[in-house]
Amino acid sequence: QVQVVESGGGLVQAGGSLRLSCTASGLTRNKYSMGWFRQTPGKEREGVSCINYSGVSTYYRDSVKGRFTVSRDNAKNTLYLQMNSLKPEDTAMYYCAAAGRVSLSLLPSHYDYWGQGTQVTVSS
Protein backbone atom coordinates (compact mmCIF):
# COMPACT_ATOMS: atom_id res chain seq x y z
CA GLN A 1 0.00 0.00 0.00
CA VAL A 2 1.26 3.47 -0.89
CA GLN A 3 1.51 5.85 2.03
CA VAL A 4 2.26 9.58 1.95
CA VAL A 5 2.88 11.49 5.18
CA GLU A 6 3.57 15.22 5.63
CA SER A 7 5.14 16.97 8.59
CA GLY A 8 6.66 20.31 9.55
CA GLY A 9 3.64 22.58 9.65
CA GLY A 10 3.06 25.05 12.43
CA LEU A 11 2.53 28.65 13.42
CA VAL A 12 4.97 31.26 12.18
CA GLN A 13 5.02 35.05 11.97
CA ALA A 14 4.92 36.85 8.64
CA GLY A 15 8.38 36.97 7.11
CA GLY A 16 9.43 33.78 8.82
CA SER A 17 10.41 30.42 7.39
CA LEU A 18 9.21 26.87 7.62
CA ARG A 19 10.26 23.61 6.01
CA LEU A 20 7.75 20.91 5.22
CA SER A 21 8.75 17.29 4.75
CA CYS A 22 6.96 14.44 3.08
CA THR A 23 7.80 10.76 3.07
CA ALA A 24 6.35 8.40 0.50
CA SER A 25 6.46 4.63 0.79
CA GLY A 26 5.31 1.84 -1.49
CA LEU A 27 6.76 3.34 -4.69
CA THR A 28 10.08 1.52 -4.70
CA ARG A 29 10.45 0.65 -8.38
CA ASN A 30 8.46 3.28 -10.25
CA LYS A 31 9.62 6.73 -11.21
CA TYR A 32 7.12 9.34 -10.10
CA SER A 33 6.61 13.04 -9.80
CA MET A 34 5.54 14.66 -6.55
CA GLY A 35 3.86 17.89 -5.61
CA TRP A 36 2.78 20.20 -2.84
CA PHE A 37 -0.74 21.56 -2.68
CA ARG A 38 -2.66 23.76 -0.30
CA GLN A 39 -6.26 24.38 0.57
CA THR A 40 -8.24 26.80 2.71
CA PRO A 41 -11.90 26.46 3.73
CA GLY A 42 -14.26 27.36 0.91
CA LYS A 43 -11.58 27.29 -1.78
CA GLU A 44 -10.39 24.62 -4.16
CA ARG A 45 -7.11 22.87 -3.63
CA GLU A 46 -4.33 24.60 -5.54
CA GLY A 47 -0.93 23.44 -6.69
CA VAL A 48 2.04 25.08 -4.99
CA SER A 49 5.00 23.28 -6.49
CA CYS A 50 5.97 20.00 -8.10
CA ILE A 51 9.14 18.13 -8.94
CA ASN A 52 10.06 15.26 -11.21
CA TYR A 53 11.70 12.03 -10.14
CA SER A 54 15.29 13.17 -10.64
CA GLY A 55 14.71 16.63 -9.22
CA VAL A 56 15.84 18.32 -12.43
CA SER A 57 12.47 19.82 -13.34
CA THR A 58 10.32 21.90 -11.03
CA TYR A 59 7.24 24.11 -11.29
CA TYR A 60 5.95 26.79 -8.94
CA ARG A 61 2.79 28.80 -8.87
CA ASP A 62 3.53 32.47 -9.47
CA SER A 63 2.65 33.62 -5.96
CA VAL A 64 5.41 31.54 -4.35
CA LYS A 65 8.22 31.95 -6.89
CA GLY A 66 11.35 33.25 -5.27
CA ARG A 67 10.08 32.36 -1.80
CA PHE A 68 9.51 28.60 -1.87
CA THR A 69 11.91 25.87 -2.96
CA VAL A 70 10.97 22.26 -3.60
CA SER A 71 13.55 19.49 -3.42
CA ARG A 72 13.74 15.76 -2.88
CA ASP A 73 16.08 13.18 -1.45
CA ASN A 74 15.33 9.93 -3.22
CA ALA A 75 17.64 7.95 -0.96
CA LYS A 76 15.35 8.88 1.92
CA ASN A 77 12.14 8.85 -0.14
CA THR A 78 11.55 12.34 1.15
CA LEU A 79 10.16 15.51 -0.43
CA TYR A 80 10.77 18.97 1.02
CA LEU A 81 9.24 22.39 0.67
CA GLN A 82 11.36 25.22 2.04
CA MET A 83 9.12 28.22 2.61
CA ASN A 84 10.73 31.61 3.19
CA SER A 85 9.29 35.11 3.54
CA LEU A 86 5.96 33.64 4.53
CA LYS A 87 2.84 35.75 4.16
CA PRO A 88 -0.56 35.48 5.86
CA GLU A 89 -2.05 34.44 2.54
CA ASP A 90 0.15 31.34 2.65
CA THR A 91 -1.96 30.07 5.53
CA ALA A 92 -3.52 26.78 4.49
CA MET A 93 -3.54 23.06 4.95
CA TYR A 94 -0.62 21.79 2.91
CA TYR A 95 -0.76 18.41 1.21
CA CYS A 96 1.90 16.24 -0.36
CA ALA A 97 1.00 14.08 -3.33
CA ALA A 98 2.65 11.52 -5.59
CA ALA A 99 1.85 10.67 -9.20
CA GLY A 100 2.46 7.31 -10.79
CA ARG A 101 3.84 8.98 -13.89
CA VAL A 102 6.88 11.01 -14.87
CA SER A 103 5.17 14.09 -16.30
CA LEU A 104 4.63 17.21 -14.19
CA SER A 105 1.49 19.12 -13.40
CA LEU A 106 0.12 21.46 -10.74
CA LEU A 107 -3.38 20.09 -11.23
CA PRO A 108 -4.59 17.97 -8.29
CA SER A 109 -6.23 15.51 -10.69
CA HIS A 110 -2.79 14.54 -11.96
CA TYR A 111 -1.89 12.89 -8.66
CA ASP A 112 -2.79 9.47 -7.35
CA TYR A 113 -1.67 9.35 -3.74
CA TRP A 114 -2.19 11.97 -1.06
CA GLY A 115 -1.06 12.66 2.46
CA GLN A 116 -3.27 13.72 5.34
CA GLY A 117 -2.10 17.33 5.31
CA THR A 118 -0.15 19.56 7.66
CA GLN A 119 -1.42 22.96 8.80
CA VAL A 120 0.61 26.10 8.11
CA THR A 121 -0.55 29.27 9.82
CA VAL A 122 1.16 32.61 9.19
CA SER A 123 0.25 35.40 11.58
CA SER A 124 0.26 39.12 10.82
Give a verbal description of the structure.
There is one protein chain. The chain has 124 residues and is mainly beta. Helices cover 0% and strands 49% of the residues. Strands 2, 4, 5, 6, 9, 10 and 11 form a seven-stranded mixed sheet that branches. A four-stranded antiparallel sheet has the order 1-3-8-7, with no helix packed on it. The protein is globular. The mean pLDDT is 94.
Question: Secondary-structure blueprint of this entry?
Answer:
Layout: E1 3-7, E2 10-13, E3 18-25, E4 33-39, E5 46-51, E6 58-60, E7 68-73, E8 78-83, E9 92-99, E10 113-114, E11 118-123
Parallel strand pairs: 2-11
Antiparallel strand pairs: 1-3, 3-8, 4-5, 4-9, 5-6, 7-8, 9-10, 9-11
Task: Please name the defining characteristics of this protein.
mainly beta; 7-stranded mixed β-sheet; 4-stranded antiparallel β-sheet; 11 strands
Provide a short characterization of the protein structure.
With 124 residues, the protein is mainly β.
Helical content stands at under 10%
Quaternary structure: single chain
Mean pLDDT: 94
Q: DSSP strand (E) fraction?
A: over 45%
Give the biggest sheet. 7 strands, mixed
How many alpha or pi helices?
0
Stretches where pLDDT is under 50 for at least 5 consecutive residues are none
